[in-house]
Fold:
Amino acid sequence: MKRTLLFMVLLAPILLFLPSCEEHEEMEEHHAEQIDMDAVKAEIAAMEAAFAVAENAKDADGVVAYYADDAQSLTYNAPTDVGKEAIKASVMKGFEEDTMGYTISFEVTGVWAAGNYATETGTSTTVDKDGNVVRKGKYMTLFEKRDGKYIAIRDCYNRDDNPCK
Structure:
C-alpha cells in the first residue's frame, strides 16, 4: 500500500507536467507561424530606403517619419535624443554640418521579429560627390508594431572610423 501511494505521489506531478509542456510547445509554434518574416523584412527594408531618400534630400520631416513620437536615438559622440523633436533637431544639425554634399546608403544585414517587436541590424556607406567612400558605419534599430505597422522606438548608430581624431 505504501509503495502504491509513493508511486502515485511521484507519478502525479509528471503526468500533470507533460500536457503543459505540449501546450507550451504548441503555443510557441502557433505564435512563430503568425509572423511572416518576409513581410517584416520587406516593410523594414522599405522604411530604410525611404529614410535614405529623405536623408539625402535633407528632408528632416521625412527622416523623422521613421520614428515613434517617444523614440530614442543613441548616436555617436552625443547624448541620447529622446523624442521625435529632439531627433529632428539632431538631424537638422547634421544637415547644416554637411557642406560636402555626401550621400548615404543603408544595407539591411539582419531582421528578427517576435510578438509586436522587430530588430534590424545594418551597415551604412557614405560617399562624396565623386562616389568615393568617405565613411562607413553600422546601426541597430528596435521597432514596435503600432497601428498595424512597424515604427522605430530605439536606434543606435556609430561610425567605423574615429571622428574624434
